[in-house]
Design a protein that fits this description.
Number of strands: 9
Shape: elongated
Strand content: over 45%
Oligomer: single chain
Keywords: Ribonucleoprotein, Ribosomal protein, RNA-binding, rRNA-binding
GO molecular function: rRNA binding; structural constituent of ribosome
Subunit structure: Part of the 50S ribosomal subunit. Contacts protein L20.
GO biological process, one term: translation
Distance between the termini: 9 Å
Number of domains: 1
Radius of gyration: 18 Å
Organism: Anaeromyxobacter sp. (strain K)
């Protein structure tokens, strides 16, 4: 059974046991999180919510709070100046523990 969840302005297709890197969530490592479920499928026909499904839950456990690999932004002008900036986007890694329909 799989589900499509919404978090951080994005949608993810998850199943029980999946590890997903999502936009940063408030919470400590080992904490529990619940997600809005948009679609459930895998057994017969898929159920689609309008916009979410009532009575369907997807629970996860926070495994890590970290940052992605650094992205470098480099600008150079012909006048001779350069500008180098970096950015590391924070994320939360979640282990999907249950998908209940």
């Amino acid at each position: 059974m799989y589900a499509v969840i919404r978090t951080g302005g994005k949608q993810y297709r998850v199943a029980q046991g999946d590890r997903v890197k999502i936009e940063k969530l408030a919470g400590d490592v080992g904490g529990k999180v619940n997600f809005d479920v948009l679609l459930v499928g895998g057994e017969g026909e898929a159920k689609v919510g309008t916009p979410t499904l009532a009575g369907v839950t997807v629970e996860g456990e926070i495994v890590a709070q970290d940052k992605h690999k650094k992205v470098i932004h480099f600008r150079k002008k012909k006048e001779g100046w350069t500008k180098k900036r970096g950015h590391r986007q924070p994320y939360t890694e979640v282990l999907i523990t249950t998908v209940r329909a």
